Amino acid sequence: MHAMSAHNPMSARLAAEAGFDAIWGSGFELSASYAVPDASILSASQHLDMMRAIAAAVDVPVIADIDTGFGNAVNVSYMVPQYEAAGVSAVVMEDKTFPKDTSLRADGRQELVRVEEFQGKVEAACAARRNPDFCVIARTEALIAGLGQQEALARAAAYASAGADAILIHSKQSTPDEILSFVGAWRGRVPLVVVPTAYPQLRESDIQALGKVGLVIYGNHAIRAAVGAMRDVFSRIRRDGGIHAVDADLPTVKEIIALQGDAGMRELERRYLK
Ligand code: SPV
Ligand code: MG
């Protein structure tokens, strides 16, 4: 299964249209779209509201990135049913301290909570869900924090025994070695989740061949694509002194109208405007 990041309903709709199996409700992307660091700066309700809007816009499952769970196990217990009610299918919660720092920044502040504390948060998340099919994915940042494979494996096993349905193992090394070694050593029964942003050379076929990875998340490609495209078009318009040259290179207004669900609106008009 492959999930593409999204920061709003339109990016989610484009990801679904491209054929991704799920939407990654990325905290990094939402923070970036507000032009703030991915460091627990946005509120839980800002993220929750966006997940609700995304879930309403697509038919594929939404996997919500709830960072550290917005506090302790009590906060997690309160938030999980709200994500479920918002139409989300899974949450990913990481074992960092609140407020978190983003994982992929060089020299970020990466402090982990005690294993027992995070087990309590995983247990609280599992107990709080109403639909047994709702997935609780525990994410360990042990490799990101530089604590090594033994610590990462121990944490992953502890979180699986606390009830996590899958373990997200994150790495920021520029080669896949660290992740490949972890996956090879993983003896747990639950599947793994990987986010190959930092080691993009690892392809889907390589990951599938490992056999233990159930989900690949592309963590920030929607916002990076959007930033690149906007930068390029905006600078061309300034340079060209108008929109005459870029116009032919952009999606048409008609295409945007279609993506806004115009066909559905016209159908409602036909049926109900009397
Ligand atoms: C996100 O997309 O918000 C993630 C993945 O959590 S990462 O930014 O790589 O930590
Ligand atoms: Mg995140």
Automatic annotation (TrEMBL):
The protein's matches in InterPro entries, at most eight in alphabetical order, are given as:
ICL/PEPM, PPH, Pyrv/PenolPyrv_kinase-like_dom, Pyrv_kinase-like_dom_sf
Q: Which keywords describe this protein according to UniProt?
A: Hydrolase, Pyruvate
The protein's matches in CDD domains, at most eight in alphabetical order, are given as: ICL_PEPM
Ranges that cross the membrane:
none
Q: Which SUPFAM superfamilies match?
A: Phosphoenolpyruvate/pyruvate domain
What molecular function terms (GO) are annotated for this protein? phosphonopyruvate hydrolase activity
Per the UniProt record, which EC number(s) apply here?
A: 3.11.1.3
Q: What class of enzyme is it?
A: hydrolase
Q: Does the keyword Hydrolase apply?
A: yes
The record's section on Pfam families has: PEP_mutase
Q: Which family does it belong to?
A: Belongs to the isocitrate lyase/PEP mutase superfamily. PEP mutase family.
Q: What is this protein called?
A: Phosphonopyruvate hydrolase
